[in-house]
Design a protein that fits this description.
The protein is an alpha+beta fold. The protein is built from three helices and eight strands. The strands form two sheets. A five-stranded antiparallel β-sheet has the order 1-4-5-6-3, with helices on one face. It has a three-stranded antiparallel β-sheet with strand order 2-7-8. It starts with a strand and ends in a 10-residue tail after the last helix.
């Protein structure tokens, strides 16, 4: 279906270094917040519920970020989330981070569905998979 989940976040004092620009590890925190809201609001399955009720978490096993332009306190970061690949137990998520339509960063992340009690990868639940597929990039326009 090729849906895009859009998530706006205000850059706050807590995200910044003494130069008032975002301290680079904070982008991963911001991306994680966007991912949690995407699961809840876009996919329809809150991460907290998956953890509590299904005992399934989604740890990151691979992440890459290209930092293109700095963001400063008071800016609004817009993440556009897309799914680029769905495996048996994993999903690749693509985040395009922009401000006022200008690209500032690009994150590629692989999440694995893991059973917390067995500490092993598990197949993506069918009800979650079908919703993830709605965000799967089906062409090269990502």
């Amino acid at each position: 279906m090729n849906k895009v989940f859009v998530h706006d976040q205000l850059i706050r004092f807590a995200h910044c270094d003494p130069a008032a620009i975002v301290y680079y590890p904070r982008f991963f925190d911001l991306a994680h917040s966007a991912m949690e809201d995407w699961l809840s609001d876009g996919v329809g399955v809150a991460l907290a519920d998956m953890i509590r009720e299904r005992r399934i978490a989604t740890p990151t096993v691979k992440i890459h970020c290209d930092f293109l332009k700095p963001l400063r306190m008071g800016d609004t970061l817009r993440f556009e989330l897309r799914v680029t690949k769905i495996g048996n137990a994993s999903v690749d998520v693509d985040y395009l981070g922009s401000k006022d339509g200008v690209k500032h960063l690009h994150i590629e992340q692989t999440l694995v569905f893991m059973h917390l009690d067995r500490v092993e990868a598990v197949p993506i639940p069918d009800d979650v998979r079908v919703r993830l597929e709605e965000f799967l990039v089906t062409d090269s326009a990502n």
